[in-house]
Write a structure and sequence with these properties.
6 helices; single chain; mainly alpha; 0% strand
């Protein structure tokens, strides 16, 4: 097993444990970012994001073709900006947060398409869960995109 594989698994476990804990404790949020307001300690969301992003940095950078490696940089930088400005309901922080979240989503989507093709997991989760639970459509889209990114990265690492 390579270090990049282990780092990817650790990253995925961090974000999965965080989302499961918050969802089971407070119920499903309307977006992943909203979990910031659902935790007692305001540092939990940023720490989990930074930790998951840190563990995913080397696998992303090491296994993204050089021609579009800038997307891996945008993904990681966007995660850090979302973590640095978690209070999206505040005026200034909200602008930073929304801009970084949009950049993250778009960069991840393009990275998935360029590295492994169609984002099937993101589409399936969004269509199945998001259509049935329209109030949380954004959450299901984010979760689908997140796990599609992990699945694509693991596929690249294992082939």
């Amino acid at each position: 097993m390579t270090t990049d594989f282990i780092c990817t698994i650790i990253s995925m476990c961090i974000i999965t444990a965080y989302l499961l804990f918050v969802s089971l404790w407070q119920g499903l949020p309307y977006s992943i970012s909203e979990t910031y307001y659902h935790t007692l300690s305001r540092w939990t969301f940023p720490i989990c994001l930074v930790s998951a992003g840190a563990f995913a940095t080397m696998p992303l950078l090491n296994h993204t073709p050089e021609t579009y490696q800038f997307l891996a940089f945008l993904i990681i930088a966007s995660i850090l900006f979302v973590a640095a400005a978690p209070a999206f309901k505040e005026e200034f922080e909200g602008k930073v947060h929304y801009g970084a979240a949009a950049t993250l989503g778009l960069s991840a989507l393009v990275w998935i398409i360029l590295t492994t093709g169609m984002p099937w997991i993101a589409l399936a989760i969004t269509l199945c869960c998001g259509v049935c639970d329209r109030k949380r459509f954004i959450f299901w889209f984010e979760v689908g995109l997140l796990y599609n990114l992990y699945a694509s990265l693991l596929y690249i690492l294992l082939k």
